[in-house]
């Protein structure tokens, strides 16, 4: 029988929960990892068939388990990612409780925490909330006004072009998922309409090297959020879009437009079968290009300051410009049979009945240390650096937390209760 009381309860069995479990096990600290589904479920069940990483494989460096394959500069496909994580689990056998839903977390008098789960009630002295920052798929309520004949999916439920009904497809949102799904459909010959938001884009290779290498070497990825020029605001920024397909490449929506993809601005509203868009397509494309050029300029500065001999590249020139900013699309007249919503995720911590959150429901923390002693967060975007929440640096965040957790384990019980 497993104990109903542990020193540390970890909620979430993704890469964040596994990372802190690795450190807890190494330190000999009794703990349990609760996972609502199967371990690393999001990678198994919420990624499309052709999904691949946009960061190179060498950045997969979970604690005690760096990437050991033959393509460190490649980009793992979905099934390879799942295999990597399954092998990670097998390498240290964390104390997992899979298919266990955490329904409620609260603090008891005396300092302990009570975790009400589908497998019974547990108590813990400390809790690590490792459910990540992408929990609830976002679909606008206006979607309810679309005709019932149109299939609507969130990006997390998209699998492949063949799974959609015949006809044209509208993808709403141009973060990483939206752009990559639009590309996936486009490559298969589907007629795609794409509502372009304010997401930035990034170069893939520049001046002879993968840009990820330049940004790592220059120290950008190691900048902590409290020293980042954008400060806390960077947590709300959409990830730059690019692709790991075909060995890694840039995504240029202007090129897609040249090839027949129809581009629009941000979705504004829905009236019957008519989608309405903001007149901001040109502005959004220009803004994405500005981010692209800023990254190139940052690499140029680093190369110059470090005195590196690197080949020059020609100036960027847009390959396409919209004549107008289209503001309407009749989905019925255009034979659109599917709409894929790729406008992100929300958070849902209602089960955590603790005063740990701000007015938007987001955790209040400093490098994962919450405002309540004994409770920690792990795997959040920009928890400390760009790599937080990613395979790259979630292990560093876990390492930071384990020292605080271990120090609390060593404190007398009377001190903790106080």
UniProtKB/TrEMBL annotation:
Molecular function as annotated in GO: flavin adenine dinucleotide binding; monooxygenase activity
Q: Which domain of life is it from?
A: Bacteria
The record's annotation in SUPFAM superfamilies points to:
FAD/NAD(P)-binding domain
Q: Which UniProt keywords apply?
A: Oxidoreductase
Pfam family membership, one:
Pyr_redox_3
Q: Which PANTHER family match?
A: FLAVIN-BINDING MONOOXYGENASE-LIKE PROTEIN (AFU_ORTHOLOGUE AFUA_4G09220), FLAVIN-CONTAINING MONOOXYGENASE
UniProt protein name? Putative flavoprotein involved in K+ transport
Q: Which organism is it from?
A: Panacagrimonas perspica
Lineage, opening ranks:
Bacteria, Pseudomonadati, Pseudomonadota, Gammaproteobacteria, Nevskiales
């Amino acid at each position: 029988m497993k104990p109903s009381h542990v020193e540390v309860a970890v909620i979430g069995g993704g890469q964040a929960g596994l990372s802190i479990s690795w450190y807890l096990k190494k330190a000999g600290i009794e703990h349990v990892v609760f996972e609502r589904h199967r371990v690393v479920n999001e990678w198994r069940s919420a990624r499309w068939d052709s999904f691949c990483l946009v960061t190179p494989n060498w950045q997969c460096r979970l604690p005690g388990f760096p990437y050991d394959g033959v393509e460190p500069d490649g980009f793992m496909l979905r099934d390879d990612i799942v295999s990597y994580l399954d092998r990670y689990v097998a390498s240290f056998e964390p104390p997992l409780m899979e298919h266990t839903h955490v329904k409620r977390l609260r603090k008891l008098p005396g300092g302990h925490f009570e975790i009400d789960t589908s497998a019974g009630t547990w108590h813990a002295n400390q809790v690590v909330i490792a459910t990540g920052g992408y929990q609830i798929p976002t679909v606008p309520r206006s979607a309810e006004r679309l005709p019932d004949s149109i299939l609507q999916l969130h990006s997390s439920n998209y699998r492949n072009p063949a799974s959609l009904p015949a006809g044209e497809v509208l993808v709403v949102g141009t973060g990483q998922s939206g752009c990559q799904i639009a590309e996936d459909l486009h490559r298969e010959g589907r007629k795609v309409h794409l509502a372009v938001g304010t997401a930035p884009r990034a170069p893939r290779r520049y001046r002879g090297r993968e840009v990820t290498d330049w940004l790592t070497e220059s120290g950008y990825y190691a900048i902590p959020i409290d020293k980042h020029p954008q400060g806390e605001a960077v947590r709300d920024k959409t990830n730059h879009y690019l692709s790991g397909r075909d060995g890694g490449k840039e995504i240029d929506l202007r090129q897609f437009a040249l090839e027949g993809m129809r581009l629009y601005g941000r979705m504004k509203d829905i009236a019957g079968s008519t989608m309405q868009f903001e007149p901001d397509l040109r502005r959004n494309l220009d803004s994405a290009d500005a981010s692209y050029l800023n990254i190139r300029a940052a690499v140029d500065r680093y190369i110059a300051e470090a005195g590196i001999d690197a080949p020059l590249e020609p100036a960027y020139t847009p390959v396409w410009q919209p004549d107008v900013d289209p503001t309407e699309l009749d989905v019925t007249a255009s034979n659109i049979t599917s709409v894929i919503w790729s406008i992100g995720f929300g958070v849902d911590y209602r089960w955590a009945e603790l005063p740990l959150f701000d007015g938007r429901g987001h955790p209040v923390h400093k490098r994962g240390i919450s405002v309540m002693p004994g409770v920690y967060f792990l795997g959040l975007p920009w928890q400390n650096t760009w790599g937080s929440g990613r395979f790259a640096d979630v292990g560093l965040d876990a390492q930071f937390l384990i020292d605080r957790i271990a120090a609390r384990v060593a404190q007398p019980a009377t001190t903790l209760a106080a």
